[in-house]
Amino acid sequence: MKCKLNKGDFVQVIKGKDKGKTGRVIQVLPEESKILVEGINFVKRHSKPKAIDKQGGIVHMEKPLSISNVMFFCGKCRKPSRINSKVLNDGLKIRYCQKCNENIEVK
Ligand SMILES: [Zn+2]
Fold it and tell me: Average pLDDT of 84-93?
C-alpha cells in the first residue's frame, strides 16, 4: 500500500481504541508503515528526572500507530476520505480529496 499522507495532514483514526478521533500528522514512518499523530495513541511513560523536569514522573506521549488504522480527514467535507493525486502540465504534483476534489495543502 502506498501512503499518500504527509506531515501536517489531518487524519481520522478508523480502528482501535482511538477510533473516531482526528489529529494532525506529526511524522510518517514509511519503512514501518506507521504514522505518528498529534494527540492520538497516547501512552504513559515513566521518565527519569531531567534538568527541565526535576520531578520526573509520568509523561504522556504519542506512539506511532499503523498507517492502515488512519484515513485522511478532509477539512472541507469534514469526512474521512481518500487522497487522489495528479501531475499537472508543469510537472507539479498535487493531491486532492476524492470526495470534494478540494486540493490538499500542507501548511
Ligand atoms: Zn473533501
Answer: 92
Domain count, the chain: 1
Which domain does 67 fall in, by range? 10-75
Tell me how far the alpha carbon of residue 106 lies from the centroid of ligand 1, in angstroms. Answer: 14
User: CA of 19: how far to CAs of 10, 53, 58, 86, in Å?
Assistant: 14, 32, 24, 30
CA of 57 to the centre of ligand 1 (A): 42
Is the confidence at residue 1, as pLDDT, over 80?
no
Provide the CATH number for the domain around residue 22.
2.30.30.30
Q: Rounded to the nearest whole angstrom, what is the distance from the C-alpha of residue 44 to the centroid of ligand 1?
A: 34
Q: Which amino acid is at 105?
A: E
d(CA 96, ligand 1 centre) in Å: 8
This prediction has a pTM of 0.80
Of the chain, the percentage scoring pLDDT greater than 70 comes to 88
